[in-house]
Design a protein that fits this description.
The structure holds two protein chains of two kinds. By secondary structure, chain A is α/β, with parallel strands linked by helices. Chain A contains 20 helices and ten strands. Chain A has two domains: about 280 residues, Spore Coat Polysaccharide Biosynthesis Protein SpsA, Chain A (Alpha-Beta Complex), CATH 3.90.550; about 90 residues. In chain B, helix 5 packs antiparallel against helix 6, helix 6 runs antiparallel to helix 7 and helix 7 crosses helix 8. Chain B is built from eight helices and no strands. Classes of the chains: A alpha/beta, B mainly alpha.
Chain lengths: ~425, ~230
């Protein structure tokens, strides 16, 4: 069944291309915007993956470009003619490997690109789809196969990636998004904000029917929404290991990134509230292929650099925080900030109540929502700095255990969150 | 002579009784208007408060920071304040209507003046409310942006923004109700000019570091903050 949206989302040129391709087994989508420095390695990995792991399948690579002015779409189109000898090193695909690069129309953002790719996947009746991140160079043919195979061979509907990385890396995920999503949705997903994932045609049809695409969440938080949607709507999900990703140059400042990610997670929780309000505890999510064992380095930043302004920030933001936090949480925060000074220790329980109270304030609209999220940023930096300093130099297992303990604290406090959430509905 | 005096007294008595006959019904009418007006004003206040409660005006006032300012000024919550304003406007209207019925020449035209004043007063109140909302929004936005950008003295900066907007709104409201128009305008021009000059001088003398940090924030590739040193995702 082809969505009605395909008429307006797919240009005539793209439709012609897709008709020439016909039905496909494996579709790999790569949303891009000025990725000239990294796109070659991504396309190369896709070709290697098609040739090595899906030689008998009908495959297509679709690049949905948001208007790059650095020649990214040309690199995708020309890759085969110039690099094929490098690309297909082990075996050759027995079928034609189709490669389509197309601009998408409408509001810039990954949401529109993903929507176009999903619409194309629905039109070509792709059995398995993998969405890749064009910002990184570390993606491998094995990684792409790891995202596709559980869908193609094991009837999973959604495959989230698991990266091999140091537990102190990615603190916005480990300190905030992972424990929050795990406690809410009741599934232990390691990378809920990952830009890569695999999915089935059933899941794609479901996603295209949702009304998220024209919202702010659809524009900037689509990765999180896809994860949340798979968990909340009961799609069969699993995790697959990918190689470590050397992070590309940051596309946004910390402030922009923080606001986008936290707003998206809060918006997701609001949309999926009917599901998660009924759930308690959490279940592990199957890891169908563990990430390849590769040594990883801890981040080099000193935690004290992040906490040095914490006490001052709390003092400066008091008049805003008193609208968001309960008197008890605020006074505990102030006590922590004043007593510890440069040796700040931000306890897990305090961090959990802080995050939950921010979520409740975001939902009840005590002030503009972007202001609520902006007020959380200095607190997150304080918490992250405190955690980094406490565990820098500690063995990875110890850090993992601390992160697991934080997740359990989030789960333990969830009944209180549910009670206050329901109370604010009345 | 006695007859003349008696006639005069009789005439005066007749006049008094005639005047009383004219005045008493007016007096009763006036009292009735005032009492009915009071009842109507009370009813309207209750209705307005009920409607505002249903519209959750106090929540909106909290959200836009107006409630905090009302508390600081020792004023009642937004719904009670608007209800009281409606009450007094309606009752004063009835009061003046009632006094007008008495027919005192010196008070003639008071009612017209009052009703001519009400729209300007309402406009002034609306300007003040908008000013309060904008001032609080700008204050919070400035405070959060300044804290997150590590600008020194964020509270001073955001407070200055808030008071500038409040002073501007206050001056516009007073100008609207024509209270000492020239004095208000002159005072405002002097105060605003002095404040701007003071800010400019203070920034010029002591704000070199702030300007440097703002520029550094604008060009992050040259100087990244500690928050940008790690990969958060």
């Amino acid at each position: 069944m082809v969505s009605v949206a395909s008429d307006s989302l797919l240009s005539d040129e793209l439709l012609h291309h897709l008709m020439a391709v016909g039905h496909v087994d494996v579709l790999v989508g790569v949303p891009t915007l000025n990725n000239a420095s990294t796109i070659r390695s991504v396309v190369k990995a896709v070709h290697q993956s098609f040739a090595r792991y899906f030689p008998r399948d009908r495959t297509v690579l679709i690049n949905s470009d948001g208007g790059s002015d650095d020649g990214t779409p040309n690199m995708v189109r020309q890759h085969g003619s110039t690099d094929d000898t490098d690309t297909v090193t082990v075996s050759h695909s027995l079928r034609t490997v189709h490669r389509i690069s197309t601009p998408y129309h409408g509001v810039p953002g990954k949401g529109n690109a993903l929507r176009q790719i999903m619409t194309a996947a629905e039109l070509t009746q792709a059995r398995a789809v993998a969405i890749l991140n064009a910002d990184v160079t570390g993606i491998t043919a094995e990684g792409i196969a790891a995202l596709v195979r559980p869908v193609r061979d094991q009837q999973y509907d959604y495959v989230a990636p698991v990266y091999q990385r140091h537990p102190l890396d990615g603190p916005l995920v480990t300190q905030l998004i992972r424990p929050l999503m795990r406690a809410a949705y009741g599934w232990q997903v390691r990378e809920p904000v990952a830009p890569e994932f695999g999915c089935s045609s059933r899941f794609i049809t479901h996603c295209l029917e949702q009304d998220v695409w024209d919202t702010e969440l659809g524009r900037v938080g689509i990765d999180l929404w896809v994860t949340g949607e798979a968990l909340a709507r009961g799609f069969r999900s699993c995790q697959a290991g990918l190689t470590p990703h050397p992070p590309g140059p940051p596309r946004a400042s910390f402030g922009e990134l923080f606001e986008q990610v936290v707003r998206s997670s809060f918006d997701c929780l609001e949309r999926h509230a009917p599901y998660w309000l009924e759930r308690n505890g959490s279940e592990p999510m199957a890891v169908v292929s563990p990430p390849p064992p590769t040594p990883v380095e801890p981040p080099t930043v000193a935690g004290s650099r992040l906490t040095e302004a914490f006490a001052r920030d709390i003092e400066n933001l008091r008049s805003v925080l008193e609208y968001i936090l309960s008197a008890e949480t605020l006074s505990t925060l102030e006590r922590v900030a004043s007593r510890q000074g440069a040796h700040l220790r931000f306890p897990d329980e305090l961090w959990v109540s802080t995050v939950y109270e921010f979520l409740l304030a975001y939902r009840s609209g005590v002030m503009r929502r972007d202001h609520v999220v902006q007020a959380l940023a200095p607190l997150y930096l304080g918490r992250t700095g405190s955690f980094l300093r406490q565990y820098s130099g500690a063995p990875e297992e110890v850090v993992e255990e601390a992160l697991e303990s934080l997740c359990r604290d989030f789960e333990r406090s969830k009944p209180d969150l549910i009670e206050r959430w329901n109370k604010s509905l009345r | 002579m006695a007859q003349m005096i008696a006639n005069a007294i009789r005439q005066a008595g007749t006049n008094f009784v005639d005047s009383l006959a004219v005045f008493l019904p007016r007096m009763v009418t006036t009292l009735a208007i005032i009492i009915v007006g009071w009842l109507i004003a009370m009813l309207l206040r209750t209705l307005v408060r009920g409607l505002l409660g249903w519209l959750r005006i106090n929540v909106a006032a909290e959200r836009f920071g107006v409630a905090a300012l009302l508390r600081t000024a020792d004023l009642p919550p937004a719904d009670a304040l608007i209800g009281a304003t409606v009450f007094w406007l309606v009752w004063i209207g009835f009061l003046i209507s009632g006094i007008d019925v008495l027919g005192f020449e010196s008070l003639q035209g008071l009612l017209e003046s009052f009703w001519a004043f009400v729209p300007r007063l309402l406009l002034a109140v609306i300007i003040l409310i908008i000013g309060l909302v904008v001032a609080n929004f700008a204050w919070r936005a400035t405070l959060l942006a300044a804290v997150n950008a590590r600008v020194p003295s964020p509270r001073l900066l955001s407070g200055a923004v808030r008071w500038l907007i409040l002073i501007l709104a206050g001056a516009m409201a007073l100008e609207q109700i024509a209270v000492a128009r020239s004095v208000v305008l002159t005072a405002f021009a002097i105060a605003f000019g002095a404040l701007s000059l003071a800010v400019a001088i203070a920034f010029g003398i002591g704000g070199g570091g702030i300007a440097k940090r703002i520029l550094e924030h604008q060009f992050p590739e040259q100087q990244r903050s500690s928050a940008d040193e790690i990969s958060h995702l």
